[in-house]
Amino acid sequence: MKNVFSPIDYFTYLVTAKGAQGIHSPFVFELYNKVIKGPDNYYEFSAIEQLRKRLLRSTEVVHVVDFGASNNCNPARKISDIIRNSAISPQKGRLLFRLVNFIQPKMLVEMGTSLGLSTLYQHKGCPEAEVITMEGSPELSELAGTNFRILKADTIKRVVGDFAQTLPDLIKSLHSVDYVFFDGNHRKEATLEYFRQFLPLASEKCVFVFDDIRWSSGMKKAWQEVIKEPKATVTIDLFSFGLVFFVPTQEKQHFVLRY
Question: How crowded is residue 241: how many other Cβ atoms within 10 Å of its Cβ?
């Protein structure tokens, strides 16, 4: 699923986005310098990108069960095409790594595993964290599990099945979460439902990450609803990513920042 962003959206973002000089919150200023504009030379990156190259050369075809908003109705897809069209980019993967490394979560949940590149970037950011990744398509989840073993990330737990069926049981099993990555269904109603289910579990240091917040009119509306949530004290717009923090000592603020 390729990102579909309008030129008008991007132009508006460029005009309104601020850099470090426009940030007056110490918390967001530190986040901006350490995470959003942080270093790109962590040694873990090369192993993940070598895996990406290997998957791009694959001729294997996988049967994909798609519960999300993808326009691709063909269940038979080449692994190379999935990586090329749907996998997280190196730039965004590095950002997720730095964010997890900054937050140091104990419990991390990802909604949307695909072939596991985004999962690996997040896991490597804090290898001690408990990582649960959810995927609707069984064959994709199995292949992701193989990729986890290749990069010695066997501790990652996989939950397989339609989120409507698997999420309620997962929510019941958790006491709290420190990090949630929403990347499994790009419909407004589903995104907001997942957000509401995880909201009571959010710890004080928790961050929710929303991918593709401008992917469609529905996702743009969902992001605007998320911003209004009273418990969300700091929200950050990075054009394609949306970050939500629940820091109780912070006054409610919204930032549009250059990435």
Answer: 20
Q: Is 135 helix (H, G, I), strand (E, B) or coil?
A: strand
For residues 111 and 163, the answer to whether their CB atoms sit within 8 Å is yes
Where b means 16+ CB within 10 Å and e means fewer, 25-34 reads eeebeebbee
Q: Read off the DSSP letter of residue 18.
A: B
Any idea what the Cα angle at residue 54 is, between residues 53 and 58, rounded to 5°? 115
pLDDT in tens, 101-126: 999 999 999 999 999 999 999 999 99
pLDDT tens-digit readout, 218-227: 999 999 999 9
Which domains, ranges and CATH numbers included, belong to the chain? 7-256 (3.40.50.150)
Residue 23 neighbours by CB under 8 Å, 6+ apart: 29, 32, 255, 257
Whole-prediction pTM: 0.94
DSSP labels for 64-92? ----SS-S---SEEEHHHHHHHHSPPHHH
In terms of Cα–Cα distance, which of 107, 101, 164, 103 is closest to 133?
Answer: 107
